[in-house]
Amino acid sequence: MNGNGTGFTTTGAGGGDSLNEIKTDIITLTRFILTEQGRYATQATGDFTLLLNSLQFAFKFISHNIRRATLVNLIGLAGATNSTGDDQKKLDVIGDEIFINAMRASGKVKVLVSEEQEEIIVFEGDGKYCVVCDPIDGSSNLDAGVSVGTIFGVYKLQPGSTGGVSDVLRAGTEMVAAGYTMYGASANLVLTTGNGVNGFTLDTALGEFILTHPDMKIPKKRSIYSVNEGNTVYWDKPTQEYFHNLKYPSEGLKPYSSRYIGSMVADMHRTLLYGGIFAYPSDSKSKNGKLRLLYECFPMAFLVEQAGGLATTGTQRILDIVPKHIHDRSGIFLGSEKEVLKVVDMYKKYEISA
Ligand SMILES: O=P(O)(O)OC[C@H]1O[C@](O)(COP(=O)(O)O)[C@@H](O)[C@@H]1O
């Protein structure tokens, strides 16, 4: 067991490296999950490992198609809209199909929710997991080659259930695993099963996700904010004052830096690594946010909390919310603990309660 609690070394010390620095003792995702299941899941049946194997196959297949999209005319619109009214990109449809087929083929999934599907999908068989996903998050950036990603969350089927919407209309606190794969310079999978957060990088030559970021911890504070300021006029007073204070700090303090890619996975990957705060506040009139609770907010909130950060609406912990519909949306602020606590304090100052 070494200092980073994962039991694995990524620096080579004791990792059995051969003389010329070729890493010969690499930790693949499957090896990592098998060890983790062995350590945490007393009655590990291997079902979760098989589910994760199907998930990583879907990520590799989607990554492959995104990389060659311009070459094989997979760029542009598919000519249809999805369940929440967004124009579907061709890769939204391809990513969705790849994900659905992989989850069906795993034999371990009973219920699937996808951003691209109006209703839940209930698979044949005795799968005991429910998966919620956004197959291609940030797809509005695809044609510009900006990083996009797949976001997912996993619930256990409720005891005695034969698979229905009530298996997924549950608080985020009931999720047993969550993560995202970002398709950027490389494909990065960031995963939690409730025992911390670990990051893996796809080695396309080996076709394996390799542990490269063990035991990720988000910095407690960092002067970086990430929000679409074009929406400022729609924000409520606490949100407007909060971001105003970051840009016009009191005497002697430096203003925060602004970073916004417009692809939640990419903005969250940077926030997890560097710290700071990402937000998509709700509209003060409709009280509606843009990002979907089940397959965008919950998985990211689970990861951030497991990495030592916080996730809130401003007045409520994101993971405590119980959705009423599978495509419900919510306002969200998440990231470094000290940054998010300033948002909570601002809402308290305005006495705005949940
Ligand atoms: O363009 P906006 O309004 O800033 O919204 C950007 C946000 O919307 C999203 O693109 C929504 O995701 P989808 O692409 O999955 O619909 C997020 O990735 C991103 O954070």
UniProtKB/TrEMBL annotation:
<dbReference type="Pfam" id="PF18913">
    <property type="entry name" value="FBPase_C"/>
</dbReference>
<keyword id="KW-0378">Hydrolase</keyword>
<dbReference type="GO" id="GO:0005829">
    <property type="term" value="C:cytosol"/>
</dbReference>
<keyword id="KW-0479">Metal-binding</keyword>
<dbReference type="InterPro" id="IPR033391">
    <property type="entry name" value="FBPase_N"/>
</dbReference>
<feature type="domain" description="Fructose-1-6-bisphosphatase class I N-terminal">
    <location>
        <begin position="27"/>
        <end position="214"/>
    </location>
</feature>
<dbReference type="GO" id="GO:0006000">
    <property type="term" value="P:fructose metabolic process"/>
</dbReference>
<keyword id="KW-0119">Carbohydrate metabolism</keyword>
<comment type="pathway">
    <text>Carbohydrate biosynthesis.</text>
</comment>
<protein>
    <recommendedName>
        <fullName>Fructose-1,6-bisphosphatase</fullName>
        <ecNumber>3.1.3.11</ecNumber>
    </recommendedName>
</protein>
<dbReference type="InterPro" id="IPR044015">
    <property type="entry name" value="FBPase_C_dom"/>
</dbReference>
<feature type="domain" description="Fructose-1-6-bisphosphatase class 1 C-terminal">
    <location>
        <begin position="218"/>
        <end position="347"/>
    </location>
</feature>
<dbReference type="InterPro" id="IPR028343">
    <property type="entry name" value="FBPtase"/>
</dbReference>
<dbReference type="Pfam" id="PF00316">
    <property type="entry name" value="FBPase"/>
</dbReference>
<dbReference type="GO" id="GO:0006094">
    <property type="term" value="P:gluconeogenesis"/>
</dbReference>
<dbReference type="GO" id="GO:0042132">
    <property type="term" value="F:fructose 1,6-bisphosphate 1-phosphatase activity"/>
</dbReference>
<dbReference type="GO" id="GO:0030388">
    <property type="term" value="P:fructose 1,6-bisphosphate metabolic process"/>
</dbReference>
<dbReference type="GO" id="GO:0046872">
    <property type="term" value="F:metal ion binding"/>
</dbReference>
<comment type="similarity">
    <text>Belongs to the FBPase class 1 family.</text>
</comment>
<dbReference type="GO" id="GO:0005986">
    <property type="term" value="P:sucrose biosynthetic process"/>
</dbReference>
<dbReference type="InterPro" id="IPR000146">
    <property type="entry name" value="FBPase_class-1"/>
</dbReference>
<dbReference type="InterPro" id="IPR020548">
    <property type="entry name" value="Fructose_bisphosphatase_AS"/>
</dbReference>
<keyword id="KW-0460">Magnesium</keyword>
<dbReference type="GO" id="GO:0006002">
    <property type="term" value="P:fructose 6-phosphate metabolic process"/>
</dbReference>
<comment type="subunit">
    <text>Homotetramer.</text>
</comment>
